[in-house]
Amino acid sequence: MKNVILTGFMGCGKTTVGIRLSYRLRRAMEDTDKLIEKEERRTISEIFRTDGEEYFRELETKCLKKLIRTSKNMIISVGGGLPLREENRALLKELGTVIYLRANAETIYERTKHDTSRPLLQGDDPQGKIRVLLAAREAVYESAADVVIDVNGKSFDMILDEIAAAVEKGDE
After folding, report:
1. Using N-to-C axis directions, what is the helix angle for 32-40 and 44-51, rounded to 10°?
2. CB neighbour list of residue 2: distance below 8 Å, 6 or more residues apart
3. Taking a C-beta distance cutoff of 8 angstroms, is the pair 112, 120 a contact?
4. How many CB atoms lie within 10 A of CB 38?
5. How does residue 119 score in pLDDT terms, banded at 50, 70 and 90?
6. Which among 140, 146, 24 has a CA at the least distance from the CA of 75?
7. Which residues have CB under 8 Å from 108's CB, separation 6+?
8. For the chain, what is the mean pLDDT?
9. How confident is the model at residue 122 (pLDDT cuts 50, 70, 90)?
10. What is the CA radius of gyration of the chain?
């Protein structure tokens, strides 16, 4: 059985779906953002503020390389910007089955509008930023994915059913 990697834009449900999927499939779960925060002993927001986005993206690549060496049969949730690097997209494929949780801008805004921990959404017009970033990233997410699951208007159980079916098919 391969690792299952959940990708998608911030607020699409990667972490929440990952936790629930880990219980359902009885697999351990990791979150690359949490691993990086633990390793760096500071939050993602602090890393962005003090060292910048490029440094953070390098940390994501290092994290993927470590997971390839150490992770088997896991659920892995990755940060929304992680697939932007071509190198990371190749590493994701090596790591396991990549599932893109696709959400539209309205769904993302509703889920993230009160969350102050997301550095890319701080400032004026977060809804506009979501639209611009999502438009720029959507093709990247799709190219990195083995499976695309639309999450708009679906319950977690519906999403989990679709992922479980895709994982079972991939493990055959």
Report:
1. 60
2. 73, 96, 97, 170, 171
3. no
4. 10
5. low
6. 24
7. 9, 10, 11, 12, 130, 134
8. 92
9. confident
10. 15
Position 32, amino acid: T
Compute the distance between CA of residue 103 and CA of residue 151 in angstroms, rounded to an integer. Answer: 6
Cβ count within 10 A of residue 86: 11
Q: Which helix (H) or strand (E) holds 128?
A: helix 126-144
- Give me the residues paired with residue 5 across strands: 76, 98
Token match 């992770």: residue? Answer: 71
Cα-Cα-Cα-Cα dihedral sign, residues 73, 78, 82, 84 = positive
pTM score, two decimals? 0.92
Q: Please report the pLDDT score of residue 85 as a whole number.
A: 94
70, burial (CB in 10 Å: exposed 0-12, middle 13-18, buried 19+): exposed
Rounded Cα distance between 85 and 83, Å, is 5
Which pair of tokens denotes residue 1? 């059985």
Report helix, strand and coil shares of the chain as percent, to nearest 5.
60, 15, 25
